[in-house]
């Protein structure tokens, strides 16, 4: 029991309402049972008056009957912080992204607005449909790479480096426009299907000295605790996410690399074919879940 | 003078490596018979206290990541990916526990989530500095097995 409470505290301690947590711990006392759900919680996520789809029937061919948002596996305080866009620290990155959207950069004297106008209209659902097939590059692009394409080809600006604060902010801003929209990929476009196949192969391949696949943790062990972490299905719908642990935004490829590092394997480069394929496949595994960017995580 | 020191160092290295290595069974030489490894991997007895430490240490066994143990309740964060290990010595003999720790897949089959702690049958792209290395040394396996053998409920 006490370990459960420790876990809840660890997750909560980073949250603003610390005094409340301490009061609760004191009230609970040693040895008292503090409720902790082992599986996903039965709760509804409403952000800015909009109900998110956090559980839905899996698409045909999916190994699991239901797809579940990572939000359902987080502790109450973390869930509450995500539900309240004033309390959600990830919204600071979104605000910075809005600034960047409107800022002229590069030799062409353009900003994102010059071509796309108001993001609330032009980007309303876009973030829910990435990665998309890029015919010219003959591979899928994700939102980060699309932003870089626009910067280089349209604006005459430099591509953002992986995980540059501006890349995180602008990606969060673009994806946040699609808040609530169910994720859906067009696998019929170009060669998307073969990237899906490749991503699936990666997902089930055991890696590293610990000999674990993504599926070992996120399919076989969903709902279980691995040390202090409650294993979710490893869905991508909240990225970039805000993490209390690091006090900052975490990109999807950073998360992928972290999970791979934890198997004691060499980490593939961000935006490598291997991780792009994984992004295609794992995004498909979350088909129908609302985009929740910026989600809040421990 | 120099050569004397060099010789002494080489000799010390030779002695220490021959002491630890000569008796150790190499990972690919471990003999699994009916879900058990009867022979110790080192020829030396395991130390249950050292085993408990290796069991908890996140850089070594990190067994608590997946398993809970009541007698270790002072440690935070026991996982529940795997069965609690209380009373595990009633369920398995030391030879079987050695097999489970050395290479769980030899006992539970290829689909188990549990890593093999003294096995080189590992995943792809192993971190460069860990290639050819096992998670635990032979002696650490013996220590962990000695510790597990104390878990009688």
Biggest beta-sheet profile of chain B = none
Distance from N terminus to C terminus of chain A (CA atoms, Å) equals 20 Å
Structural class determined from secondary elements of chain A: mainly alpha
* Low-confidence spans of chain B: 1-19
- What name is given to the CATH topology of the largest domain in chain A? Cytochrome Bc1 Complex, Chain D, domain 2
Quick check: average pLDDT of chain B?
89
Order of helices and strands of chain B: HHHHHH
The chain-level mean pLDDT of chain A equals 90
In terms of DSSP E residues, the strand content of chain A is: 5-15%
Topology diagram in text:
The complex is a heterodimer of chains A (298) and B (153).
Chain A: H1 2-12, H2 18-28, E1 46-47, E2 50-51, E3 55-57, E4 66-68, H3 76-83, H4 90-101, H5 112-116, H6 119-122, E5 132-134, E6 139-141, H7 143-155, H8 165-177, H9 192-203, H10 214-218, E7 225-226, E8 229-230, E9 241-243, E10 248-250, H11 252-262, H12 273-285, E11 296-297
Chain B: H1 2-23, H2 48-56, H3 88-91, H4 94-102, H5 104-108, H6 138-148
Tell me briefly what this model is:
The complex is a heterodimer of chains A (298) and B (153). Chain A has 298 residues and is mainly α.
Walk me through this protein's architecture:
The complex is a heterodimer of chains A (298) and B (153). Chain A is mainly α. Chain A folds into 2 domains: 3-86 and 181-297, Cytochrome Bc1 Complex, Chain D, domain 2 (Orthogonal Bundle); 91-176, Cytochrome c-like domain (Cytochrome Bc1 Complex, Chain D, domain 2, Orthogonal Bundle), CATH 1.10.760.10. Helices cover 40% and strands 9% of the residues of chain A. Chain A has helices at residues 2-12, 18-28, 76-83, 90-101, 112-116, 119-122, 143-155, 165-177, 192-203, 214-218, 252-262, 273-285, and strands spanning 46-47, 50-51, 55-57, 66-68, 132-134, 139-141, 225-226, 229-230, 241-243, 248-250, 296-297. Chain A is globular and about 50 Å long. Residues 1-37 of chain A have low confidence and may be disordered. Chain B is mostly helical and 153 residues long. Chain B has one domain: Orthogonal Bundle (Cytochrome Bc1 Complex, Chain D, domain 2). Chain B is built from 6 helices and no strands. Chain B has helices spanning 2-23, 48-56, 88-91, 94-102, 104-108, 138-148. In chain B, helix 2 (48-56) crosses helix 6 (138-148) and helix 4 (94-102) packs across helix 6 (138-148). The longest helix of chain B is centred in the first third of the chain and has 22 residues, at 2-23. The chains are: A mainly alpha (298), B mainly alpha (153). The interface between A and B is medium-sized, with 29 and 28 residues.
């Amino acid at each position: 029991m006490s370990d459960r409470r420790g876990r809840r505290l660890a997750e909560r301690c980073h949250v603003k309402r610390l005094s409340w947590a301490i009061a609760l711990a004191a009230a609970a006392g040693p040895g008292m049972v503090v409720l902790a759900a082992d599986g996903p919680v039965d709760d509804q996520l409403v952000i800015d008056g909009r109900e998110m789809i956090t559980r839905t029937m899996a698409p045909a061919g999916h190994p699991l009957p239901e797809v579940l948002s990572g939000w359902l596996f987080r502790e109450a305080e973390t869930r509450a912080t995500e539900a309240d866009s004033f309390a959600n620290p990830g919204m600071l990155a979104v605000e910075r992204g809005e600034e960047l959207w409107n800022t002229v950069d590069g030799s062409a004297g353009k900003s994102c607005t010059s071509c796309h106008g108001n993001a609330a209209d032009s980007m309303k659902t876009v973030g829910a449909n990435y990665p998309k097939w890029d015919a010219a590059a003959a591979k899928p692009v994700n939102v980060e790479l699309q932003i870089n394409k626009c910067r280089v080809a349209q604006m005459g600006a430099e591509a953002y480096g992986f995980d540059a604060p501006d890349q995180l902010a602008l990606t969060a801003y673009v994806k946040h426009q699609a808040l609530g929209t169910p994720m859906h990929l067009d696998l019929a476009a170009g060669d998307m299907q073969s990237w899906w196949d490749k991503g699936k192969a990666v997902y089930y391949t055991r890696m590293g000295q610990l000999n674990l696949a993504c599926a070992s943790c996120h399919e076989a062990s969903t709902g279980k605790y691995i040390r202090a972490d409650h294993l979710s299905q490893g869905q991508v719908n909240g990225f970039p996410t805000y993490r209390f642990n690091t006090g900052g935004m975490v990109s999807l490829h950073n998360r992928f690399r972290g999970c791979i590092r934890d198997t004691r394997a060499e980490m593939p480069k961000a935006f490598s074919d291997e991780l792009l394929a994984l992004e295609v496949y794992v995004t498909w595994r979350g088909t129908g879940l609302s985009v929740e960017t910026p989600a809040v995580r421990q | 003078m120099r050569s004397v020191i060099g010789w002494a160092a080489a000799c010390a290295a030779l002695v220490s490596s021959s002491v630890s290595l000569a008796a150790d069974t190499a990972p690919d030489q471990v003999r699994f018979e009916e879900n058990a490894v009867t022979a110790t991997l080192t020829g030396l007895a395991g130390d249950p206290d050292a085993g408990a430490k290796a069991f908890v240490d996140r850089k070594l066994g990190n067994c608590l990541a997946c398993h809970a143990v009541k007698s270790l309740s002072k440690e935070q964060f026991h996982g529940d990916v795997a069965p609690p290990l209380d009373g595990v010595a009633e369920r398995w003999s030391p030879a079987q526990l050695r097999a489970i720790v050395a290479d769980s897949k030899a006992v539970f089959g290829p689909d188990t989530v549990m890593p093999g702690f003294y096995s080189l049958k590992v995943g792809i792209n192993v971190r460069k500095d860990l290639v050819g290395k096992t998670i635990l040394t032979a002696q650490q396996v013996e220590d962990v097995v000695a510790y597990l053998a104390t878990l009688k409920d």
